[in-house]
């Protein structure tokens, strides 16, 4: 019993340490207000896929990085940084568990035209129409924004302040039928926000900084 007790204590201590590392690593990720004036709500895609204007759960998580810390090659041509950020979102550690789960359920001959392997996700340029792990599709791409259906909206913009601003913007809703309430309760909303921060940090650290 003593060995089991010590093992449980070590496991608990390790879990607490991991939680501390996570919140320390994501302390600079900030959620900003996102109201109905946001372009995502005015887009033809939102109106097409949410025809009944059902309630949404939406947020935008922001991380600012000094340009001196960004990989120089990503600043040489407009659009390269947002491509790298998007590749980091889907090919980074933050999406690893979900990607493995979707691969077990859906990867096969009928989804061979999707991006599945990490190496492919990390090098793709994410043009319109790109399919990701059977559940995501690139709807729109500009030099500053890539919009993905059934996923997040990676968005990055350069500022004259000498920083790059990375954003993961989310908007969830029930696309079919009529709904009266938000698609997620308080607990799921909080968990979603932590997952968003994990995606944001791992995407930047893996693919965008020196």
Structure classification: alpha+beta
User: What is the H/E order?
Assistant: HEHHEHHHEEEEEH
Tell me the fraction of residues in β-strands, as a range: 15-25%
Measured on Cα atoms, how large is the radius of gyration? 19 Å
How do the strands of the widest beta sheet line up side by side? 1-2-7-6
The first-level CATH class name: Alpha Beta
* Alpha-carbon distance between the two ends: 49 Å
Description of the molecule:
The chain is of the alpha+beta class. It has a single domain (29-207), classed as Alpha-D-Glucose-1,6-Bisphosphate, Chain A, domain 4 (2-Layer Sandwich), CATH 3.30.530. Helices cover 40% and strands 20% of the residues. It contains 7 helices and 7 strands. The chain has helices spanning 2-25, 39-42, 44-49, 80-91, 96-106, 118-123, 186-207; strands at residues 30-32, 56-66, 131-132, 136-141, 146-149, 153-158, 163-173. The protein has a 4-stranded antiparallel β-sheet. The protein has a 3-stranded antiparallel β-sheet with strand order 3-4-5, with helices on one face. A hairpin with a 3-residue loop joins strand 3 (131-132) and strand 4. Residues 151-157 have low confidence and may be disordered.
In brief:
40% of the residues lie in helices and 20% in strands. The chain has seven helices and seven strands; from the N terminus they run H-E-H-H-E-H-H-H-E-E-E-E-E-H.
């Amino acid at each position: 019993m003593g060995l089991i007790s010590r093992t449980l204590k070590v496991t608990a201590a390790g879990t607490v340490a991991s939680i501390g590392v996570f919140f320390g690593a994501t302390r600079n990720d900030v959620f900003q207000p996102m109201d109905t004036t946001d372009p995502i709500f005015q887009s033809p895609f939102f109106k097409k896929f949410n025809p009944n204007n059902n309630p949404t759960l939406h947020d935008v998580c922001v991380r600012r990085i000094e340009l001196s810390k960004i990989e120089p090659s990503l600043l040489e041509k407009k659009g390269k940084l947002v491509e790298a950020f998007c590749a980091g979102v889907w090919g980074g550690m933050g999406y690893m568990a979900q990607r493995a789960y979707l691969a077990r359920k859906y990867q096969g001959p009928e989804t061979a035209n999707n991006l599945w392997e990490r190496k492919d996700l990390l090098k793709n340029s994410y043009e319109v129409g790109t399919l990701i792990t059977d559940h995501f599709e690139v709807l729109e791409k500009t030099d500053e924004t890539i919009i993905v259906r059934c996923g997040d909206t990676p968005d990055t913009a350069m500022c004259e302040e000498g920083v790059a601003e990375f954003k993961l913007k989310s908007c969830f809703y029930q696309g079919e039928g009529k709904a009266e309430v938000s698609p997620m309760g308080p607990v799921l909303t909080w968990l979603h926000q932590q997952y968003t921060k994990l995606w944001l940090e791992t995407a930047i650290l893996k693919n965008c900084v020196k």
